[in-house]
Write a structure and sequence with these properties.
alpha+beta; 6-stranded antiparallel beta sheet; about 25% strand
Length: about 260
């Protein structure tokens, strides 16, 4: 991919494995990525040619011939449509996950779900830190599959947990919380391990997640309930504030009876 260029993609599935990013028919070594960010595509400039068309169109009305006036209307119409299209593009609310390569090529992956884009960006950032990380980012379903980070050394053991960012609403009052299952504990533990992996030691999110993970590992309902009850605000602000998945919030409520 020599030279500067831009490419846009929709509904892609990004696979990250063995320090390689793959999607569609492309494979990119992560060492070739210079920058990743979430933002709108840079605004397009209004081309002087568009305004020139409008000016020429206006000048055409100084002639008496009908064909010149028709040409003027045509040129002004082109000018108006051209400017409107650029204006509409620049004011759109669509944001992108932007991956810039060392060659200058920029890859744009679009989604209206900003929370999902931020989580996708975080997954890519984590893959730079750990070359053994494995992620699957689905732009069509707005899901990010996180690796299960096991043990104290944070090595990937290959299991995956899926976080779905299609639903952002929290606290469905009509939801019925059923009996706690072993799968509830497993999913909660996987989620907490991801938070532990994403935050440095001696930070509040890391400390809270480690403590909660201890109770989840031992399936200690009373201990987890008491811990979250005593640290509810801090736990929500530091561990759950960026969670868009209703499933995790539902699991915590089902286990502890505490709603957020």
């Amino acid at each position: 991919m020599g030279g500067f260029s831009e490419k846009s993609y929709e509904n892609e599935v990004l696979d990250i494995k063995d320090n390689v990013l793959t999607f569609s028919d492309c494979a990119i070594q992560l060492s070739n990525v210079s920058q990743i960010k979430v933002s709108p595509i840079p605004h397009k400039k209004y081309p002087p040619t568009a305004f020139l068309c409008g000016i020429i169109g206006l000048l055409c009305f100084y002639f008496d011939e009908d064909i010149m006036k028709a040409a003027g209307v045509f040129l002004i119409g082109i000018c108006a449509i051209w400017i409107f299209m650029i204006y509409n593009y620049n004011t759109s609310n669509v944001k992108f996950l932007i991956i810039e390569l060392n060659s200058g090529t920029q890859l744009y992956f679009s989604s209206h779900n900003v929370t999902f884009l931020e989580e996708a960006c975080k997954a890519l950032t984590n893959s730079f830190k750990n070359e053994k990380s494995t992620y699957k980012i689905n732009f069509e379903k707005c899901t990010v599959n996180y690796p299960n980070i096991g043990g104290t050394t944070n090595n990937v053991d290959g299991d995956m947990i899926e976080a779905n960012y299609s639903t952002i609403t929290k606290g469905d009052n009509n939801e019925t919380y059923n009996e706690i299952t072993a799968n509830d504990w497993d999913e909660l533990l996987l989620f907490l391990k991801c938070i532990i992996n994403d935050n440095s030691k001696n930070t509040i999110p890391n400390h809270l997640s480690c403590k909660a993970a201890f109770y989840a590992h031992n399936k200690d309902k009373n201990g987890l309930t008491e811990f979250i009850k005593n640290n509810k605000d801090s736990f929500f602000n530091n561990v759950l504030s960026g969670v868009a998945s209703q499933a995790i919030l539902s699991i915590i409520t089902r286990i502890t009876g505490i709603s957020f």
